[in-house]
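Postdoc handover notes: sequence design on the structure in folder B. Input tokens:
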């Protein structure tokens, strides 16, 4: 075993960086934390936006119709360079010596996720693919890097997602309050933490679209000039189309029981573009379309809680970009009147930093040899240690 890895295994407190690019592919989230197995101290965080050309190239990889194997190969190494640059820049900006960072946990960029799999010779083959070559990250930074977290869970029968519940439990479990950690990124996912519960009591799954449909609608409305609805201001000016809202609620994903995960393949550009065309064809204004999509996103989250959670929710704690959308939050409060809806800011953590922090924590567990998947969330047959270590 590598001597450096041995040393990391022996130390309780580590300084760890987390790197993440989500389904929205708007940029790289980079966080640096100090962690001792329970308490997290966030030292620095930044979201480094992708240049428009690179973001467009990433979006091309999401679709089998536009993706090419030579481009996947190239982008894997290019994103490795960009992930490394994001961390180096964050450390320099905050005067944190790179040599003081013990470990990196990199989720990479998912370009395809097939949790239900395909049947080949009578056997179900699930698959997922994240790019952002970790060997490049380790080499450019000189820091031991853990990456490729999802495949090991799939290898033991899981869906490879969601993975953040492990970190959610360490950070937010409570003896007397039942909590939902609700991430609203491109895709929205929740973690149910029952009051006084154990890791075996965790329930976690993707509730459906998060910002993905809203962001694409904004892009279509503004012909690409605007990427998101800041504060939900534009959605607040529109009227919800109840007929279309009820139609959207019929999507079979929302009735499917957990464990389950989804992605751009189901709720991405193609899905939104087709809906937008139908709305416009019926004479519905762009602002009303946005209002309807925002209400729909809130409904998918609330409906998942009503349908699949075993008890009353005392607190819903929001993170991800959707935690800044006041219109979306207002819909959630109306949908869940008995639940206190707060953001992670109220707990001293930047909502945008949560997923990067989570992958730093997952890397910490990997290097310690601690099983860091949650079978009740992913459907895996057993707990395993996730991630590949690049010394």
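Designed sequence:
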């Amino acid at each position: 075993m590598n001597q450096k890895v041995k040393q990391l295994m022996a130390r309780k407190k580590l300084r760890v960086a987390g790197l993440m690019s989500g389904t929205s592919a708007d940029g790289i989230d980079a966080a640096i934390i100090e962690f001792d197995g329970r308490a997290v101290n966030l030292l620095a965080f930044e979201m480094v936006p992708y240049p428009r050309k690179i973001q467009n190239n990433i979006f091309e990889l999401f679709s089998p119709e536009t993706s090419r194997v030579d481009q996947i190969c190239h982008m894997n190494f290019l994103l490795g360079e960009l992930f490394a640059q994001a961390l180096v820049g964050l450390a320099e900006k905050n005067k944190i010596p790179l040599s003081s960072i013990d470990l990196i946990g990199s989720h990479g960029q998912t370009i395809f996720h097939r949790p239900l799999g395909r049947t080949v010779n009578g056997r179900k083959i699930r698959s997922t693919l994240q790019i952002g070559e970790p060997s490049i990250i380790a080499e450019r930074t000189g820091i031991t890097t853990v990456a490729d977290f999802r495949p090991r869970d799939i290898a033991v029968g899981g869906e490879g997602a969601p993975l953040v519940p492990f970190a959610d439990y360490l950070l937010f479990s409570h003896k007397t309050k039942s909590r939902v950690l609700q991430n609203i990124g491109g895709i929205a996912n929740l973690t149910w933490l029952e009051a006084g519960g154990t890791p075996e009591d965790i329930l976690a799954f993707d509730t459906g679209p998060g910002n993905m449909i809203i962001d694409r609608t904004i892009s279509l409305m503004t012909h690409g000039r605007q990427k998101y609805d800041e504060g939900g201001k534009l959605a607040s000016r529109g009227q919800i189309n109840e007929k279309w809202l009820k139609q959207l609620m019929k999507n079979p994903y929302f009735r499917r029981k957990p464990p389950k995960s989804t992605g751009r393949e189901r709720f991405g550009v193609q899905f939104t573009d087709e809906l937008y065309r139908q709305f416009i064809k019926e004479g519905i204004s762009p602002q009303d379309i946005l209002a309807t999509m925002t209400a729909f996103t809130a409904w998918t989250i609330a409906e998942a809680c009503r349908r699949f959670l075993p008890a009353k929710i005392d607190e819903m704690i929001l993170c991800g970009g959707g935690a800044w959308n006041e219109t979306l939050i207002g819909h959630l409060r109306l949908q869940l009147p008995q639940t206190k809806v707060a953001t992670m800011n109220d707990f001293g953590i930047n909502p945008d930093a949560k997923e990067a922090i989570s992958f730093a924590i997952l890397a910490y567990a990997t290097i310690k040899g601690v099983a860091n998947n949650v079978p009740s969330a992913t459907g895996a047959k057993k707990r395993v240690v996730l991630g590949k270590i690049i010394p």
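Context for whoever picks this up: The chain has two domains: 3-160+353-390, 165-347. Don't rerun without checking with the PI first.
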